[in-house]
Design a protein that fits this description.
- There is one protein chain.
- By secondary structure, the chain is mainly beta.
- Helices cover 0% and strands 52% of the residues.
């Protein structure tokens, strides 16, 4: 279903052929001419809108998680940990707080294009390499 493509100021700058064709962080296929590259920074399914902006607007410093599965003792999570957002992504230094199976991850490094529904997996370095601590599903 067609819908509007808007800039960060809310101005309609184009039309899309369906939000199912877009993901957060996407640059190619937006079909909107601009002086600087535009990226999908938000998908509003209720309004059938795509919001685009510069890459700097994709930076996340905090992630909220649901359905957390812990595979270690909780003390391992009280220290700085590493998280991975994509299977091919880099390990990102982070801190996590968990309460009632809900987690808040503070990213200590910039990460771009994080979307709800992606997995966030926790690791720590040990003498054998990267130890899997657990993970959860991104909600924001």
């Amino acid at each position: 279903k067609k819908g509007n493509i808007k800039n960060l100021d809310g101005k309609v700058i184009g039309v899309h052929d369906g939000i199912v064709n877009f993901t957060i962080g996407q640059r190619k296929g937006i079909k909107v001419a601009a002086k600087d590259p535009l990226y999908v920074v938000e998908i509003n399914s209720e309004k059938n809108e795509i919001i685009v902006g510069p890459k700097k607007n994709l930076v996340k410093k905090e992630i909220l998680l649901r359905d957390i599965n812990i595979l270690t003792n909780k003390e391992d999570l009280n220290k700085e940990i590493l998280v991975k957002i994509r299977s091919t992504g880099k390990l990102i230094k982070s801190k996590i707080k968990i309460s009632n199976n809900i987690g808040k991850v503070a990213l200590l490094e910039d990460e771009y294009g994080i979307s709800p529904g992606q997995a966030c997996v926790f690791y720590k370095k040990d003498k054998n390499g990267d130890k899997l601590l657990g993970g959860g599903w991104i909600t924001n």
